[in-house]
Amino acid sequence: MSNRLKVTPNDLSAFWMPFTANRQFKQAPRMFVSAKDMHYTTSDGRKVLDGTAGLWCVNAGHCRPKITEAIQHQAAELDYAPAFQMGHPIVFELANRLVDIAPKGMDHVFFTNSGSESVDTALKMAIAYHRARGEGSRTRLIGRERGYHGVNFGGISVGGIVNNRKMFGTLLGGVDHMPHTHLPEKNAFSKGVPEHGAELANELERIVALHDASTIAAVIVEPVAGSTGVILPPKGYLQKLREICTKHGILLIFDEVITGFGRLGTPFAADYFGVTPDIMTTAKGVSNGVIPMGAVFVTKEIHDAFMTGPDHMIEFFHGYTYSGNPIACAAALGTLDTYKEEGLLTRGEELAPYWEDALHSLKGEPNVIDVRNIGLIGAIELAPIAGQPTKRAFSAFVKAFEHGLLIRTTGDIIALSPPLIITKGQINELIDHLRDVLRSID
Ligand code: PXG
Ligand code: PLP
């Protein structure tokens, strides 16, 4: 083992960890040193079942050979090519492969390096699209309470998670928010999409009436909200949003960073719900989380609106040094090959009923106040400890990790999103572990 891997507590201070309780972590570090398929191995040699596909990204499971080999080969062949005014073959191949599996009408792809960058790219595209068509007054962006759209300024402005916003000043101007769709008093313990709440989409009409459609560029929502603790769209809600946007000439952006690439048992949530947005933001599963990558899908209409002016002029003044990085593209192609060979983009559909029954068997366990599910996503909401919100779920997280299971918590909600290769036996194992954990914490 190289010296680099021998970490002692005094070595931990330099790294300021993202979205982490740094001081707690550094007192009792939790480290993974390797991973294979459904499991991690910890620094003390224990196996941990991955109940969350990393951070909702390792959809094909860990250290898959096709992906590893593609990266190794590409690193030795062409490590980098300038992203601006130059190309390399596999970035075009990847874009074509992605368009092939995307919902009909999503014909063009713009590459980024993360979900946050995909979101800010999409917001800029929406505003610039209207301007290119001579409707420069359409600059407002509409998000939703409890929405998560990454951590860049555009994303936190349209996002609706208070802790992600309140420390960071005035954010973007000209943003409004629709209400979230979490209605526990009506929808608790729903299996799949809840019955009640489609009328909340009409709040968009109220916002349009307030600002006038001529000032609104786009509405952005997660088809299924993940980070905020798994909030599902009520039956008919997304269809209504689509109708209202179309009626008023407002672009609809689906943020599919979590739902993209098979999470719901269909390639994209747009397929699951039968609702096609104008722009779709993705990341995570596009490259199995192995190399950072994001992809923004747009319709031909949006793309073509930019393709005006002299041929030698740049059409869209936007892009990243690493947009379409060759090694990221290779990882993504290896990922798409793996998804295809193993049918992973639709495997969730087959497993969803089993997953649903297993999750809902946790109803009645201590402090469980709701269970929610869709595709291969699950959430178990716990009653908070009085005066100490988040503490109960955090205890569950630490306990689960000690017992060999990785879960994710936000507030007092446990979120589950296993790799799409999970077996029924592993679903049982995951739920049994979780049941023990719920029975053993305060
Ligand atoms: N949009 C959505 C809908 C997301 O879920 C992002 C944008 C930002 O992606 P990047 O790649 O910039 O992180 C996300 C990311 C969690 C969790 O545990 C969720 C995300 C990231 C990390 C943790 O819920 N979502
Ligand atoms: N900051 C500086 C000083 C830069 O030169 C660049 C890119 O050239 C950036 C930020 C943006 O970096 P990226 O393209 O990786 O987003």
Structure description:
The protein has 442 residues and is an alpha/beta fold. Helices cover 37% and strands 16% of the residues. Helix 10 (237-248) links the parallel strand 7 and strand 8 (251-255). Helix 4 runs parallel beside helix 13 (326-342). The two termini are 40 Å apart. The model has no long low-confidence stretch (mean pLDDT 96). The structure holds 3-[O-phosphonopyridoxyl]--amino-benzoic acid (PXG) and pyridoxal-5'-phosphate. Keywords: Aminotransferase, Pyridoxal phosphate, Transferase. InterPro entries: Aminotrans_3 (IPR005814), Aminotrans_3_PPA_site (IPR049704), PyrdxlP-dep_Trfase (IPR015424), PyrdxlP-dep_Trfase_major (IPR015421), PyrdxlP-dep_Trfase_small (IPR015422). This is Aspartate aminotransferase family protein. One of its GO terms (molecular function) is transaminase activity.
DSSP helix fraction:
25-40%
Low-confidence stretches: none
The side-by-side strand order for the widest beta sheet comes to 4-10-9-8-7-5-6
Largest sheet: 7 strands, mixed
**CATH architecture identity of the largest domain:** 3-Layer(aba) Sandwich
CA radius of gyration: 22 Å
CATH class of the largest domain: Alpha Beta
Bound molecules: 3-[O-phosphonopyridoxyl]--amino-benzoic acid, pyridoxal-5'-phosphate
What's the average pLDDT? 96
CATH level-4 homologous superfamily of the largest domain: Type I PLP-dependent aspartate aminotransferase-like (Major domain)
| Integer count of domains | 2
